[in-house]
Specification:
Layout (H helix, E strand, L loop, with lengths): L8 H6 L4 E6 L2 H4 L18 E7 L8 E8 L1 H16 L12
Bound molecules: zinc ion (ZN).
Zinc ion binds next to loops.
């Protein structure tokens, strides 16, 4: 596994997949799952959020879902509020794990 792939890192970072809100899930669907934002288990949520990570492709017609997950209603709302706020703020450098 020593063959590290060093392919234009800047492009990869720019297209880092982010969680995007998909829809409201049913409570049974998310029960027992781990919240993608706070890391706690979901149980008895009436409106858990279903989130997906999509690969960013040039072709906007094709959605490649890399990962999906559930979040508490509160965590979902908080995250959406943050994203709304950041849309008005200056573009931030994403602080991904191991970003630098
Ligand atoms: Zn949560």
């Amino acid at each position: 596994m020593a063959r590290a792939r060093v392919e234009n890192k800047e492009t990869r970072m720019a297209t880092e997949p982010r969680w995007s809100y998909e829809r409201v899930a049913s409570s049974g669907e998310a029960d027992g799952r781990t919240c993608i934002f706070c890391g706690k288990q979901i149980g008895g949520e009436s409106q858990p959020g279903h989130w997906v990570k999509k690969a960013v492709e040039d072709n906007q017609d094709a959605d490649f879902i890399l990962e999906d997950g559930y979040a508490h209603h509160a965590c979902t709302q908080e995250r959406l509020a943050q994203e709304r706020k950041s849309r008005f703020a200056l573009p931030d450098v994403p602080q991904g794990p191991g970003g630098r």
